[in-house]
Amino acid sequence: MAEIVEKSPSQRPPIEWSTAIMFVLTTLAAITLVPWYGLVEGYSTTAWVTALVLWIYCGTAIGSGYHRLWSHRTYKAHWALRVFYALGGALALQNSALNWCARHRVHHRHVDIEDKDPHSIKLGFWHAHMGWMLRDHECARANYGNVPDLKNDPIVMWQHRNYWSLTWFMNLGVPAIIGWIAGDLWGVILLGGVLRLVVNHQVTFFINSLAHMWGKQPYSDESTARDNWFLAMITFGEGYHNFHHTFQADYRNGVRWWQIDWNKWFLNGVRLVGLGWDFKKTPRFRVLRAKLAMDFINARKRLTEEATDASWKETLDREYQQFLETVKAFQELQKGRVQSARQSLRERWEANSLRTRMKELEYSLKMQRKRVSLLTAALSTG
Ligand SMILES: [Zn+2]
Ligand SMILES: [Zn+2]
Questions:
Q1: What is the pLDDT of residues 202-239, one digit of tens each?
Q2: At 344, is the secondary structure helix, strand, or coil?
Q3: pTM for this entry
Q4: Which end of the chain, N or C, is more open, meaning fewer C-beta atoms within 10 Å of its C-beta?
């Protein structure tokens, strides 16, 4: 029988006191000072508006900047936008971009592996949420070998060198200046500084904890990452975590136009005004293929659970065969497209007919998804 080895307190990595004290003090202030001041003095409209604007700023700097630009390089950005992200990242108090991205790339590479993923969900909700930051775990130490590209970004390095002064300025200086001008110094510091910081911390940490536990897996079940629209709503779009772990090079996390992904919309705006370019998108066919592969996995599970008659299995196998053929046909077409990249008239015509054929194959996958979902529904009722 396998023995569960519980680590004794002396074997655990040492506590990160400065991080722990920062979390305790900010959280305590948010749950005591903030309501107390509200009851005794009341908050001005400026204080509320500042908190909201700075919260959105933090979420955008982390989501569009730290995450989609610097960690995953899903687009290229003008220096002014990178400065905007560097300041917003300091405001979010989530470490310098260099440290954040070095760890985040390891999370993707070794997701779910207990002693390699910096915040593996396999060690429980608390560890993935905040516990991993409170002790000096070896796998959570930033390895700058992972971020050679970022070391060449002067704005990232400027932020890294001046991280603490920027953090104090953004978290205390900016709210204090706004509060002083508006005549509500403490109100703006408490709502726009403290409460906004704590709320932003907690919702960001949900991505490492809840988004690996709670939600659907429409694109892949190879990791614990989940898509969750509610988390997406409070994390500016980062809650579509199953899509993100499956297609990390895509600048979108909510790939469907209706999915609530604030950072995707922000980046569409960035492209429109010319502050970002070379945005990467996963081809529709690959997205459809991933979804259909998951549909087959789910249908098969249902088939064995329900032990339904053999004809269902045959139907499913036939559908699966067709799926493989469609994928193969698409891959061959793509090869052809790469070869005919030159632009004579005849080749342009060919490229166009290739495109039409690709669209047809895409459509065939879409129709097949409908059939497989009907099949799954039939299996669960019969
Ligand atoms: Zn990521
Ligand atoms: Zn993750």
A1: 999 999 999 999 999 999 999 999 999 999 999 999 99
A2: coil
A3: 0.88
A4: N
Q: Which ligand is nearest to the CA of 101?
A: 1
C-alpha of 146 from chain center: 19
Q: DSSP character for 118? A: T
The angle subtended at Cα 219 by Cα 308 and Cα 256, nearest 5°, is 120
Any idea what DSSP says for residue 106?
Answer: H
- The yes-or-no verdict on residue 67 having pLDDT over 60 is yes
Amino acid letter at 116?
A: K
Calculate how far, in angstroms, residue 101's C-alpha sits from the geometric centre of ligand 2.
Answer: 13
Using alpha carbons only, what angle is made at residue 148 by residues 146 and 151, rounded to the nearest 5 degrees? 120
Q: Are 376 and 298 in contact (CB under 8 A)?
A: yes
> Ligand 2 centre from 241 Cα, in Å?
6
> 50, 119 in Cβ contact below 8 A?
no
pLDDT of 53 > 80? The answer is yes
Ligand nearest to the CA of 67: 1
Distance 31 CA to ligand 2 centre (A): 28
| Ligand index nearest the alpha carbon of residue 111 | 2
Rounded Cα distance, 137 and 15, in Å: 9
| Greater model confidence, 11 or 195 | 195
pLDDT confidence of 341, banded at 50, 70, 90? Answer: low
Of residues 231, 200, 197, the one with CA closest to residue 216: 231
- CA distances for 279 relative to 18, 73, 115, 334, angstroms: 38, 9, 34, 21
% helix / strand / coil in the chain, to the nearest 5?
Answer: 70, 0, 25
**Nearest residue to 189 (alpha-carbon basis) of 167, 165, 173:** 173
pLDDT at 176: 97
Token pair belonging to 181: 């001008």
Full 3-state SS string of 230-272: HHHHHCCCCCEHHHHHHCCCCCCCCCCCCCCCHHHHHHHHHHH
